[in-house]
């Protein structure tokens, strides 16, 4: 059983006749509440970096600062602007994904090329994330599928890249991150990212793909997260007939897998 909200209208005809119309408006109200939450979340996410930026601008305008102090303010301001840029580009990507029909199966992307690009991006990101650290992440990329995958290359790259960047952002320096693409015995293919990060408690796992859902808000922000990454991954997976699975235990790392159907794959070397 679930609570239901009904909209009831009563019409009175001549001759004592009554017409009662009732409509279940639960879904409409839920959609409206979700939309309100979403707008409130977006406004909050944009307001925070804007407030910080405005504060720094005011400081620069009113105080006579030494050159190195001014530079450190400018660096912080650049970080806040970048945060807003990522947020807006993730929002645009989500709205495009939600508003356009699923892509046709006529664009094929080379899986080894995709994996090479992901590895390059990951190495660049670990270098930035670990700039002040003694150790860098141990990245292990493995492509066991010499073939192509059908879909929109930019979407696939973005979804897979989000999983890899999450692994890097949530795993402490020096931790191991394994990324692989392989074909399963039943013909499906699996893109997998395994990390040695803090892991995720079971009660959070089903909600991770909700927009702006974060287990630890400050950790996500600190590492440049928008809270939209996994929502994007889930949408892209769905549009490609694929499935996102998340497995984790608190303190034991996490494993994210996107499983693609055999119909989306073709081998290039027989
Ligand atoms: P964010 O930008 O906050 O990382 P995501 O949608 O990508 O947003 O992820 C949602 C939340 O899921 C994160 O805030 C974090 O709490 C959790 N999460 C995602 N990936 C990992 C991971 N590899 N290890 C631990 N927690 C993760």
Automatic annotation (TrEMBL):
EC number: 2.7.13.3
Enzyme class, spelled out: transferase
Compartments (UniProt record): Cell inner membrane
Catalytic reaction equation(s): ATP + protein L-histidine = ADP + protein N-phospho-L-histidine
Record domain Histidine kinase: where: 41-264
Membrane topology: Multi-pass membrane protein
Top-rank taxon: Bacteria
Signal peptide: none
Name recorded for this polypeptide: Phosphate regulon sensor protein PhoR
Assigned GO CC terms: plasma membrane
